[in-house]
Amino acid sequence: MAGDVHRRGRRDVAHGTLIVRVVEVRFFTADLHIHTVLSACAEVEMLPARIIERAKELRLGLIAITDHNSAENAEAMLSAAEGSGITVLPGMELQTREEVHLLCLFDTLEQVRCWQKEVYAHLPALKNREEVFGVQIVLDAMGNAVGKSERLLLTSSTFSLEEAVRRVEELGGLCLPAHVDRPSYSIIANLGFIPPELGLVGVEISPLLGPREARERFPELRSYSLVAGGDAHRLKEVSARTTFRMEEATIVELARALASEGGRGVWVDGIHAGRVA
Ligand SMILES: [Zn+2]
Ligand SMILES: [Zn+2]
Fold first, then answer.
1. Could you give the percent of the chain with pLDDT greater than 90?
2. How far apart are the first and last CA of the chain?
3. What is the per-residue pLDDT for 40?
4. What distance separates the 2 farthest-apart alpha carbons in the chain?
5. Distance between CA atoms of residues 266 and 204, nearest Å
6. C-alpha 124 to ligand 1 mean position (Å)
7. Could you tell me the domains of the chain?
8. Cα of 35 from ligand 2 centre, angstroms
9. CA distance linking residue 268 with residue 208, whole number of Å
10. Is it the case that residue 113 has pLDDT exceeding 90?
């Protein structure tokens, strides 16, 4: 898709002249929900270099790394993306105490590490049961396996949804409730609705559901912009269904695209997916 230029003028009150700021928006095809080998349920092929290779094949411009309750492989993912032209947002798929899965996305490793520290302090001190859940492989910055996380990550934190959204936003991040149409681990299934006081702008629908069908089944989704992540636990699940139009691949711009501000927007399966009510 071609780029687009929007000119927006504002009056310089002090000098009575018109200052024109040129906003150059581009299209970024994105998958904001990808797991690595750190997630016990992910395949061993979910290694940073291979994820980037797959993202290139799909012509993605933006991906987010969202392991369960952890961001220990985020640095490896960012290193693997260097020079690829693909932006990687370090993130996490948090499980709140309501058993709701929430994508928490950030711009920087520093932010996500800060969040991870808080999440670890809100997880039960239990060990992973590899024979039940699988191995949680930790990678170094170069993407080499250096060990495994012994902590039980596939469980609920003690963060409430409300506390998590507030804290992620305080850290400069963005929250998207994950796979909201699913019968388990989703905000609609577990709470019965999306609490408006959370102030969320967008939500994720699951891989097999289209945006129109989603809004037919859940009319309240008209009030939210939709994204469709792959929830990829294997390479073939990385998806190219969501496209953002924005200036650059940052959290601030994502939020503006979800709010359809200033010529920005979001599409799923080629259909405009911005909120309509
Ligand atoms: Zn999930
Ligand atoms: Zn997931």
1. 78
2. 27
3. 83
4. 71
5. 12
6. 19
7. 5-272 (3.20.20.140)
8. 6
9. 12
10. yes
Whose atoms come closest to the Cα of 230: which ligand?
2
Q: How far is the CA of 94 from the centre of ligand 2 (A)?
A: 9
Question: Which DSSP string corresponds to 225-262?
Answer: EEEE---BSSGGG----EEEEESSSSHHHHHHHHTT-T
Q: With cut-offs at 50, 70 and 90, classify the pLDDT of residue 152.
A: confident
Please determine, for residue 92, whether its predicted confidence score (pLDDT) is greater than 90: yes
HSE-CB of 222 using CA atoms within 13 angstroms: 6
The amino acid occupying position 114 is: C
Q: Which pTM was predicted?
A: 0.91
Q: How many CB atoms lie within 10 A of CB 169?
A: 16
pLDDT tens string 201-228: 999 999 989 999 999 999 999 999 999 9
Can you tell me which residue has the tokens 């259909």? 271
CB 58 within 8 A of CB 29: yes
Q: Which residues surround ligand 2, an ion (CB under 5 A)?
A: 93, 231
The CA–CA distances, whole Å, from 222 to 57, 60, 111, 218 equal 32, 26, 31, 8
Tell me the residues surrounding ligand 1 (ion) with CB < 5 Å: 101, 178
Distance between Cα 84 and ligand 2 center (Å): 24
pLDDT on residue 17? 66
Q: Mean pLDDT across the chain, nearest whole number? A: 92
| Residue labelled with tokens 């520290």 | 117
